[in-house]
Amino acid sequence: MEKNDIEFIDELTKHFIDELSQDLGDFAKLRAKFSQLKMLAEKSLTVSEDACDGIAYLLYFTNSFQNPFVGTQALEWLSNAYERYPSSNLLKFLYLGQLFSESIETRDDTIRKDYEDLKASIRKDHQFFINVLERTESISLYANQHENLLKVNYDLYHEKIFPEVTIEIFPEALSSFYHSLCAEYYKIADTMEEARKKSFKALELYKNNSLAIAQVAYFMVESDTLEAENMFRKAIKLAESQFASSPKDRLFIKALGYSGLGYVYNKRAVYDIAEKHYTEAFEILQSSTFQNPFVDYLKDVILLNRGRNTFDGGRDIKGSRKDLMEVIRRNEDLVGAAKTNVGLMYYKQGLYEKAEAEFIEAIETKPGLPHPYYNLGVMYAKEGGEGNHEKIERAKKLFQTALDMDDSEGGFIEASGALKEIEGHGTRKNIRDWYGWWFDNAASSYKKALGIVLLTLLLSSIVLIIYQTLINEQRNSPDLSDLSNLILGGLGIVIFFLALPLVTHLKIGSIIELEMESKGERPLFYAGPSLTSVGHT
């Protein structure tokens, strides 16, 4: 629809809301108004997709899909309209949002196709869906400026959404939830900075929005795991009483909270507690009677993170592999991350060819994921450290690719560090390598002792040479004594042995000392348009 058409629909909706407010106590007039909408809707089916989109906006903004007068007919119209115009993003958003707010059979291929189509549409044009939510928020705030509509909406909905909220801040609480939904759409589209802004704004608008709390907590994990943990626990507790009218929302937020706790403890390297929380999140979803494709997706994300955590902890490789292979079997969208972790598992088992194949498949499956590029770069860098300069060059390109594709602040920081390590800083790198060969933690006690003895001999030889030189100058004799020749010879031998690591590139392990990275996923919460804009009348 054109911008002028959209503005016209919004103004028409506001006019309709003004009339609703005036006629709120007159059920005959209210029934007549909604019946007019129903007749317009029926006519639009034979006109055009734009006409149906316009009617769909009106029905949605006026809450006609849940209206006691025309709700059943409106939903039937929506189904017919989507069947006739399946390419309409708006009809897809409203119809599938309504469908996925219910528990449905997920083995149905048609349902799964609808789910994949909706997700692809969001990623292709996420701003459209966010604009719909932002317009809905705007209409909702306008409706709640009418005191009588605000009271009706509050009485009908606050117990079902935020039972603890007062009528004075009810509009802000609804606005907070819409911001949270927008944040999720930005995450689906991998626009994380915008997701971050919306999440923090949602929390600012209403501090007890459990979804916003969980969202912000995920962003807090990197900087403050203690604060993040407290926020996840608060979100879980609040979700017990919030969203009574939407079991999907309550279910998802609790699972997000427990999965977030798993994320926190994985970051702290307390892998057994992390696994416990991931399992709690998974069992919440698995044991629920509410099932649909979005529940399945969240379960797959939790399996991915649990498999990664188990592998990171080195506790149960078999269990980790089972979780990761299940994700690969079930979820095409997460295959790249799962294969990255499987490749890392093969690498640590010494199965280098299999590891390389998994990293390459991960790149082919998910070209925008930096982790497999980085891990493959680490693998080539370690091989190149043995003198294979071609592998070193390939590693550099892979690290640069990983660095360039990460749009987070500072880029993919591990890749940045790897490039510095692999390129080095001339003399400083050589000195660092030399010191590491003799004295780092991996060096044996015998090697360290030998290094100390050689350094002592070196310093002693230098002192003796200086002393001998000064004595000769006082005697006015430039000739070196036999003792001086002996000292110089010994000094040469000491220097040769000390410099041997730099000459031959000897080092425990490879010249390039880098660690690979496993890959998890932040769970996505998706809520269809289940909240109303003006409420029942």
Which percent bin holds the helix content? Answer: over 70%
What is the averaged pLDDT score? 79
Q: Could you name the ranges where pLDDT drops below 50 across 5 or more consecutive residues?
A: 503-513, 525-537
- What Rg is obtained from the alpha carbons, in whole angstroms? 32 Å
Strand content: under 5%
Instruction: Tell me the overall shape.
Output: elongated
Please report the total strand number as a whole number: 0
The number of helical segments is 24
Largest sheet: none
What is the straight-line distance between the termini?
A: 29 Å
Which structural class fits the helix and strand makeup? mainly alpha
Run of helices and strands:
HHHHHHHHHHHHHHHHHHHHHHHH
Protein topology:
Blueprint: H1 3-22, H2 27-44, H3 49-61, H4 71-84, H5 89-100, H6 109-124, H7 126-143, H8 147-157, H9 170-188, H10 192-205, H11 210-220, H12 225-239, H13 247-267, H14 271-287, H15 293-312, H16 317-330, H17 335-348, H18 352-365, H19 370-384, H20 389-405, H21 413-423, H22 427-439, H23 445-474, H24 482-504
Helix pairs in contact: 1-3, 1-7, 2-3, 4-5, 5-6, 6-7, 7-9, 9-10, 10-11, 11-12, 11-13, 12-13, 13-14, 13-15, 14-15, 15-16, 15-17, 16-17, 17-18, 17-19, 18-19, 19-20, 20-21, 23-24
